[in-house]
Amino acid sequence: MKRYLNFGVLLFIICCKGFGQGNNYVQNYNKFEGLALTPPMGWNSWNRFACNVDENMIREMADAMVATGLKDAGYTYINIDDCWHGDRDSLGFIHPDAKRFPSGIKALSDYIHARGLKLGIYSDAGSQTCGGRPGSRGYEFQDAMTYASWGIDYLKYDWCNTDGLKAEGAYKTITAALRRAGRPIVLSICEWGNDKPWTWGQKVGHLWRTTGDIYDCFDCIKDNGSWKAWGVMQILDMQEGLRNYAGPGHWNDPDMLEVGNGGLTVNENRAHFSMWAMLAAPLIAGNDLRNMRPETKEILTNKEVIAINQDPLGIQGFRHLRKDSLEIWMKPLEKNDWAICFLNRSHSTRQLKFDWQKEVVIDSLSNRVLKAAENNYKIRDLWLKKEAGDTKKVTDISIPGHDVIMYRLTRM
Ligand code: GLA
User: Fold this and answer.
1) What residue owns the CA closest to ligand 1's atom 8?
2) Quick check: helix, strand or coil at residue 330?
3) Which one-letter DSSP state was computed for residue 319?
4) Nearest residue to 254 (alpha-carbon basis) of 270, 224, 278, 219
5) Which of 35, 38, 125, 410 is deepest in the core (most CB within 10 A)?
6) pLDDT score at 264
7) 143, 62, 68, 42: which is closest to 107 by C-alpha?
8) 405 vs 78, 258, 284, 343, CA distance in Å?
9) DSSP track, 168-202
10) Which residues contact 123 (CB under 8 A, 6 or more apart)?
11) Ligand 1 mean position to 118 CA, how many Å?
């Protein structure tokens, strides 16, 4: 009897080791793959509306995204930024502000999905969001489950009030929570580039902010005392040295677009949009889609410029030449095509003669060479939407102040 008893105890111990205390649980800190093979495109409430968000406005924005042709041009995400939150309940579950979102977020996501769009939401790794709403610190897994149950598709995760937290660990925690919750959700790391997210973000999230907040001006710095916001040109300059970190599924994010928000002229809007396309940046519109000027709509829906941004190779463009306030940017594209963008940062019109035959462009990152003396390319002007000769002839252009001329070169 005693022998059988000992055998039983032994069997129990083996079982426990194998299936219980042996710990089969492996945490997955890797993002969902395959969700952002090209830079995400959508709309976000912050740049235009700040904390002034509610469900009617979000629904109207989704309708406008369809009605204005933005959806057809590739925009998919409707992202609610800060200040949608109400309180946590007695169990810690987060609820939306009942006055602003009386029907709840699930109803909103059903509405958005019914239009073939996707819904994004916002939280913060710290105790409170930047707008002072409840943050996810200590509630990461609970919040991720809630977002999944609401049908959320995209999470922008901010970095205010994070004293004592380590960025990489904090973002890994929310990634693990999203994995556990099981719904594929794009993770937008919004840590402003403080802890070099490009060096650790590739497996953790799908995009990472490289800078502080954008400001609605072309070339200025807005000093808010304890922090600064940056004009379009300032943000462009801060992208230096980052292009080798971006690629399909993981993008440098120079912040959301200010196109159409009033601080930029038409030329500047065009230059801003073109440069974000060249950078393979996420194209997240930040204007009121319900009341767009025709010029704004034309810029945001220029499919040939969007195709430069969405090129499947996902190679971020680079500055090839800089002379005074004139810059020439290049971006290798599929099928040996190239995008080239002439950017005039000065106020006055600049003349340029560009002799393709004398030019050799080498991109050591993608191992691509543009040598028009050996291969002729057809030139297409992406803003005038017409053919502009080929690379046998010297291109003689005049670029208005704060504007661009943007071409696609196709091998003949
Ligand atoms: C930070 C982010 C912004 C925006 C606000 C919301 O400043 O960088 O993009 O989300 O918070 O409060």
Assistant:
1) 213
2) strand
3) E
4) 278
5) 125
6) 98
7) 62
8) 30, 20, 22, 7
9) HHHHHHHHHHHHHH-S--EEEE-STTTT-HHHH-T
10) 129, 135, 136, 143, 155, 156, 157, 158, 174
11) 20
Integer Cα distance of 363 and 339 in angstroms: 13
pLDDT of residue 24: 74
Distances (CA, A) of 106 to 151, 152, 206, 298, 344: 7, 8, 24, 33, 46
CB atoms within 10 A of CB 396: 10
What span, in angstroms and rounded, lies between the C-alpha atoms of 242 and 209? 11
Contact 306, 369 (CB under 8 A): no
For each successive 10 residues of the chain (412 residues), what is the average pLDDT? 52 48 80 98 98 98 98 99 98 98 98 99 98 98 98 99 98 98 98 98 98 98 97 98 98 99 98 99 98 98 99 98 97 98 98 96 97 97 98 98 98 94
Do residues 113 and 102 lie in contact, with contact meaning Cβ atoms separated by under 8 Å? no
pLDDT of amino acid 9: 52
Longest dimension (CA), the chain: 101
Is the C-alpha dihedral spanning 127, 130, 134, 138 positive or negative?
A: negative
Ligand 1 binding pocket mutation candidate from 43, 52, 81 (most atoms within 8 A of CB) = 81
Both structure tokens of 291: 């009341």
Map tokens 């989704």 to a residue.
62
> Does the Cβ of 130 fall within 6 Å of ligand 1?
yes
Q: 372 with 391: CB under 8 angstroms?
A: yes
Distance CA 323, CA 23 (A): 61
The CB of 158 under 6 Å from ligand 1? The reply is yes
Tell me which residue of 321, 324, 319 sits closest to 358, measured CA to CA.
321
Its pTM stands at: 0.94
Cα(333)–Cα(338) distance, rounded to whole angstroms? 5
Instruction: Report the nearest-CA residue for atom 5 of ligand 1.
Output: 130
- Which tokens sit at 404? 């661009």
Report the alpha-carbon distance of residue 270 to residue 405 in Å, rounded.
9
Question: Given the structure tokens 């930040």, which residue do they identify?
Answer: 286
Say what the pLDDT of residue 7 is.
Answer: 54
